[in-house]
Write a structure and sequence with these properties.
The strands form two sheets. The protein has a four-stranded mixed beta sheet, sandwiched between helices. 43% of the residues lie in helices and 19% in strands. With 155 residues, the protein is α+β, with helices and mostly antiparallel strands. The protein contains seven helices and six strands.
């Protein structure tokens, strides 16, 4: 069989377009609604989201690009880094009422090979170091704390 390797997609023999395989396929109407909701959430971040975004935007963490309010399948995660396959979710007060939903959502996302980190509003607002430690631990090989200090303007 000719064409691109399966990992890069398959070539449609009729119109020569490339179909890239995806682990899930969200129906278009759901995807469009999620994109609109994600855009609205980006325009009105919580204080913790705004604080974290100021620390990780513009590739400030070792050159990794993070997206905020990013759609994954039928879900929106607070932050996502494609290179690390990492989702970060900030748990505020609403998450206390939807614990079962949150854990199911996390499990479904993790089943796609995405690392999922949960942090609380307090960890973001009072102890950013906790999140940075979690990020260092998921990196392979583990990242040096001194790199994060330098990247965050503290070293």
């Amino acid at each position: 069989r000719g064409g691109l390797p399966k990992a890069w997609g398959e070539v449609n023999s009729i119109d020569r377009t490339i179909k890239t395989p995806v682990p899930w396929q969200t129906p278009r109407e759901i995807y469009d609604a999620l994109k609109l909701l994600a855009r609205q959430k980006r325009k009105a971040p919580t204080p913790a989201e705004a604080h974290l975004w100021a620390q990780i935007r513009d590739k400030k963490i070792l050159g990794f690009k993070f997206r905020r309010q990013h759609t994954i399948d039928r879900f929106i995660v607070d932050f996502y880094c494609r290179e690390l396959r990492l989702a970060i979710e900030i748990d505020g007060k609403i998450h206390e009422k939807q614990n079962d939903y949150d854990h199911l959502r996390q499990e479904l996302i993790e089943n796609e090979g995405i690392v999922f980190i949960r942090v609380t509003n307090d960890e973001i607002m009072k102890d950013m170091k906790t999140l940075l430690n979690k990020l260092m631990n998921i990196s392979n090989p583990p990242l040096s704390p001194s790199i994060f200090k330098r990247e965050m303007g503290r070293g």
